Amino acid sequence: MRTVIRIIVLSFFVFDAGAQENKTKDIITFNDGSEYRGNIQAFKQGEYVKIMVGGNLVSIDKTEYNNIKKIGFDKLDFYENRGFWKELQLGLSVGQSNSYSNDESYPSVNVAGGYQFSQLTGVGLGSGYQQFSQINIVPIYGILQGDLINDNRVTPYYYANLGYGIGIKQKNDFSFGDSNKARGGLLFGSGLGIRFNLKNAFLTTSMGYKLQKSNIKREFEPVFFDTRFAPSGDESITERRTYNRVEIEIGIGF
User: Fold this and answer.
1) In this structure, what CATH number is given to the domain that contains residue 88?
2) What is the pLDDT of residues 69-126, one digit of tens each?
3) Residues 193-215, buried b or exposed e (16+ Cβ, 10 A)?
4) Do 201 and 151 share a domain, yes or no?
5) d(CA 79, CA 117)
6) Quick one: how far is CA 105 from the chain centroid?
7) How buried is residue 232: exposed, middle or buried, by Cβ count under 10 Å (0-12/13-18/19+)?
8) Which of 14, 146, 187, 228 has its CA 20 to 30 A from that of 118?
9) CA neighbours within 13 Å on the CB side: how many for 217?
10) CATH of the domain at 11
11) Domain extent at residue 186
12) Cβ 192 vs Cβ 207: under 8 Å
C-alpha cells in the first residue's frame, strides 16, 4: 500500500512539474515553420529577442527578427519594450465648448517624449500648440501610456494626458473690450491608438477625448463700457470656456 501511495505522489509531482514547465514556455515561430520554445529573457521591438532554450541563451538580432511570424508570452507584464521614446504629433480637434464656441475644427502640433517601463506602463512629458476660437493654447502635460496587446508590427495602445494649457491671445483682437486677457486652465485627454512599428521608427494614429478649460477677461474703460456686454455696470467681464472635443492625431516617433 505504501508503495502505491509513493507512486501516486511521485506521479503527481512529475505531472505538476511538466505542466509548470509547459506553462512557462514562450514560443517564437519563424516564417519557414521552425520555432524556438523556451523562456524569453529580453525583447525590444525591431531590435532583438533573447530566449533561453534548453539551458542555452539564443539571441536573435534585428536581421533575423523581421522573419519572425509570432512571439508568444505567458506573462503580459514580461514584455520588455523598455527605453526612451520621442514623437511628433499632428492633430485635429472637433467639437463645441459653449455659447462662445462653434463646431469648427482646429489644428494642433505636439512634441512628446518619455520612458517605457513595461508593456502596460510608460510615462512622459509633452508640449505644443493648440488653436481654438479667439484663443490659442500652449499645453504642458504629463503622459501615461501602455500597449494593450503585445505585437511586434501593429500594436494597439492607450494613453492619458493631464496638465495645464497656457492661454495666448490671437493676433487679431477680440470683437469688443478695451483690454483683453487670455488665460488657460486644466487640460485632460485620453484615448486609444494604433502603433505601426517600423525598423528604426514607428507611426501612430489615435482618437480620443480632450478637455481644455480657459477664460477671457474683457476690461472696459470706466466711462465708456458697453452696457450690452456688461449690463451690471462692471468694468470687466470674464468668459469661462470649457472645450470638450474629439481629437484625432497622427504621429511619427523614434
Assistant:
1) 2.40.160.20
2) 656 654 443 444 568 899 999 999 887 655 555 567 889 999 999 998 888 889 999 9
3) bebeeeeeebebebebebbbbbb
4) yes
5) 10
6) 22
7) exposed
8) 187
9) 8
10) 2.30.30.100
11) 83-253
12) yes
